[in-house]
Design brief:
The protein is an alpha/beta fold and 285 residues long. The protein has ten helices and seven strands.
């Protein structure tokens, strides 16, 4: 009943939308065109904000209000276009990171941490942790794992794993972009399988580090309840797409419990495990 009412309401105003759209100027956004579904979606969202109940035949918005609805929809679309262009440029940007030794990289990392966090803590296993990252990202054979695999970074909350990986986004091994798993989950909610496909692909030699693995919610897209990040990791495993780094606050047992043995078995094949002691103190104030 509610769905039929919504559909009928949208049908009643769709012609009005199409008639008024081309006549209403939208400052500085004239180059952005909205499709009919985009117009309907924008107006329906505005109706939900303004009305609890919309009587049959009721004219919901004035011409000025419609103009503002379209302007906001165009601004949102422009933002999505800008983000897509930014991501494309980032992914296609050539790797110009200098060829440094692990020790030189370690010194640069400490300087970067000092500037960005205010202090450097090398206690509780952090010095070894940082050096393992430096060995890995300089292809140094002193790395204790497999240089061909990606990284699974495990540590407690606030211990500096995300900060360290942020430093290594540009490196002489293979660049990657940090993206929170919660962001991936919300993109799936809004875009559906398109979001999964985007993060499952190889983007011109640039990979991803999925940050805070285990904190994402399993969100739905039009009734489809999917663990987007699980599908992405399995897809990247199947196609052997590198790098696919992960940071997480979860222990091995917690990963098995939350995601199951199938995913965990794939992760063992994909990743080198680098961990800080979970009892290490948080660096956050």
């Amino acid at each position: 009943m509610e769905t039929n009412f919504k559909n009928k309401t949208m049908e009643n105003i769709s012609e009005k939308i199409k008639e008024q759209f081309t006549a209403l100027p939208v400052q500085n956004l004239d180059h952005i065109e909205l499709t009919e579904p985009e117009m309907k979606s924008a107006v329906y969202a505005a109706i939900k904000k303004k009305y609890v109940y919309l009587p049959e035949g009721h004219d919901p918005f004035s011409a000025e209000e419609l103009a503002e609805i379209y302007r906001e929809a165009k601004m949102k679309k422009q933002g999505e276009i800008n983000l897509a262009v930014y991501m494309k440029n980032l992914m296609n940007k050539p790797n110009k990171a200098p060829l440094l030794t692990a020790e030189q990289t370690f010194d640069k990392l400490l300087s970067w941490l000092k500037v960005n966090t205010g202090e450097v803590n090398l206690e509780e296993g952090r010095k070894d942790f940082y050096f393992q990252l430096c060995f890995y990202f300089t292809n140094d054979k002193r790395f204790t794992g497999d240089l061909k695999k990606s990284l699974l970074i495990q540590a407690g909350i606030g211990t500096g794993k995300t900060t360290a990986m942020t430093f290594f986004q540009r490196n002489q091994k293979q660049n990657f972009k940090m993206v929170r798993t919660r962001t991936v989950a919300y993109e799936f909610k809004n875009k559906g399988v398109e979001a999964i496909e985007f993060y499952s692909k190889n983007h011109s030699e640039t990979g991803f580090c999925f940050d805070d693995f285990g904190t994402e919610n399993i969100l739905q897209h039009y009734g489809d309840k999917v663990s987007a990040i699980t599908d992405i990791i399995l897809n990247r495993y199947d196609d052997n797409i590198q790098p696919t780094h992960i940071t997480t606050n979860l222990t091995v047992d917690q990963i098995k419990e939350l995601y199951g043995e199938r995913l965990f078995d794939r992760m063992k094949e994909m990743f080198n495990q680098i961990a800080l002691p979970f009892e290490a103190k948080s660096l956050r104030k």
